[in-house]
Amino acid sequence: MTGRILLSLVLLALAGPAWAAAPDTCRVAEPQIERDFALPQVTRAIAAKQLDILVVGAGSSSLPGPNGVKDAYPARLQSALAELLPGVTVRVTTDVKPRRTATQMVKSLIPALAAAKPALMVWQTGTVDAMQSIDTDQFKAALDHGISVARRAGADVVLINAQYSPRTESMIALAAYAEIMRWVALQQEVPVFDRFSIMKLWADLGTFDLYSATKKLDIAAQVHDCIGYLLADLVIESAKPEEPHAEGGRQE
Amino acid sequence: MASVPSERDLRLDLFRGIALWLIFLDHIPSNAVSWITIRNYGFSDATEIFVFISGYTAAFVYGRAMREHGFIVASARVLKRAWQIYVAHVFLFAIYLAEIAYVAQSFDNPLYTEEMGVLDFLKNPDVTIFQALILKFKPVNMDVLPLYIVLLLWFPPMLWLLLRVPSFALVGSAVLYALTWWFDWSIPAYPNGTWVFNPFAWQLLFVFGAWCALGGAQRLARWVNSPVVIGLAAVYLLFAFFIAMTWYFPRLAPLVPHFVSDAIYPIDKPNLDVLRIVHFLSLAVITIWFVPRNWPALKSSVFWPAIVCGQHSLETFCLGVFLAFAGHFVFTEVSNRLLTQVIVSVAGIAIMVGVAALVSWYKRIERQGPGPRPPSTKPGYAGGDA
């Protein structure tokens, strides 16, 4: 009995501080989320009660179907943040078009940032680059460039890596691109939302059947819902003003 | 002319066999068993072992042929080997196409609309298949054989040079490696990018292996056995191990000073990063220290499964690529539970050993039987290929 209580205490301690919002199904992946770097612009925006976020992404930031926009993770991120940050007006806009490499996304970044004036740019990229085996130096340069463009426009950046897609795993070599993203993020002090590992954990634990050959949207919508919640957790954790991170967040 | 040692070093077959197993395990996507492979614990992986030992054995087998039968005969045999590997590669590509076509037909999950775009190349098979035949289009995990083909095509003149002025050949290889880094030389791939294993860079390890086979190993022996070198190798392996741990436990990442991470990343696999070479060399130094050439256990039955795989590396390698496809297929179609992953991994290695033993038997009866005899390479123990 004592052992069990101790165990649950340990588990609670491991679960970390602020993971209240995510539905139970998502929660198994919470330990994957760590506060790496601060998001000073987001901290300021939350303090000012107005948080604008721009999601830049390719096909895996959207879902097909009539409810696609509502169910995809950008919209889920908005509602999760609104729930977690009472009193703060949260507005998530998107620049999402399928089949875009990082380089192609960077091209539309300046007008998109100018239109949205976000405190945070969430940037999902890498899948299409891996599918087209874009030169890795070019991918790295695009990431660096995109991050500096966002910072010049006064926005923090969170990167999102590729989805875990078990069926196409033997056809898309994601590893090199994930590696480069992690390295750029470390250098530029940008948090990475490790979507790949999170989805892999869900698949391993049986939370979601990602092997399923279903054409239905229900699992896809749940996955995006969870991604939205966990992403909101990452944003809020990274933007917490207390316990300033040793490395600090670079603004320019 | 450099001498060619007379007896095959069983350690080479042993470690090439193990490398082939590790490559197989690494090539099954999402395979939990691949946690045991060396790429998770340092910078280099089984590819370095495979390329180095392939260079070593190529020099061992064709070096003797070149000394005994001359440049033309040895070159012809090297090129025949390259052709065999090319045929094997095209065969594997056909199997890959079959798998892809099946997935394209059966899978339409809305979560993965973007990822399914990778199957679009099926819409213009004329271009894709042609590009595959000229080795520009290479599916994931099918990059080692094209590298091997290029290394062999270029091997006859290199071997000629290695037999005459080995040090000059090795320095030339290192200069080519350096120039490749300096000028960004590479071979273009289809539809974008470059070869996953840049032959201009990876040739260094192949030539180094060949150089070791032709007397270099003896020259290095004094260094390799020195306590200072062994100590440095051990320290470097520990350093690489710690860095590798930061990939899996991001909490450790802040412990790596900025100047260190700026210096080491990105660790360039296509161009065979120096960090990878040093890691491989350190592994080799430690391994040689633990496993001497005349270690009696090498002839025991415990190591026979790995040795027989290493001796028939082309067959085992191709089978491994095929089995990795098949394993992934089992994961997607049957089950991806941990138990299945362990069964698939163990069964795959068992099949590799079984087929290697069969190939070994075949080659033995072909040597004994009547009719035209294939040229014997006078292997030291139970046969073995370059």
Structure commentary:
- The complex is a heterodimer of chains A (252) and B (386).
- In chain A, 50% of the residues lie in helices and 11% in strands.
- Chain A has 252 residues and is an alpha/beta fold.
- Chain A has a five-stranded parallel beta sheet with strand order 2-1-3-4-5, with helices on both faces.
- In chain A, strand 4, helix 10 and strand 5 (192-193) form a beta-alpha-beta unit.
- In chain A, helix 5 (73-84) packs across helix 12 (218-239) and helix 9 runs parallel beside helix 10.
- The longest helix of chain A is centred in the last third of the chain and has 22 residues, at 218-239.
- Chain A starts with a helix and ends in a 13-residue tail after the last helix.
- Chain B has a domain at 55-209.
- Chain B starts with 9 loop residues before the first helix and ends in an 18-residue tail after the last helix.
- The model of chain B is unreliable at 376-383 (pLDDT under 50).
- Helices cover 68% and strands 0% of the residues of chain B.
- At the A-B interface, helix 8, helix 10 and helix 12 of A face helix 2, helix 3 and helix 13 of B.
What secondary-structure arrangement, pairings included, does this model have?
The complex is a heterodimer of chains A (252) and B (386).
Chain A: H1 2-15, H2 24-27, H3 40-47, E1 50-57, H4 68-71, H5 73-84, E2 89-96, H6 102-107, H7 109-116, E3 120-124, H8 127-131, H9 136-152, E4 156-160, H10 175-188, E5 192-193, H11 195-205, H12 218-239
Parallel strand pairs in A: 1-2, 1-3, 3-4, 4-5
Chain B: H1 10-27, H2 46-106, H3 113-116, H4 125-133, H5 144-153, H6 155-164, H7 166-183, H8 199-224, H9 227-248, H10 258-264, H11 274-290, H12 304-311, H13 313-333, H14 338-368
Helix pairs in contact in B: 1-2, 1-12, 1-13, 2-5, 2-6, 2-8, 2-13, 5-8, 6-7, 6-8, 7-8, 9-11, 12-14, 13-14
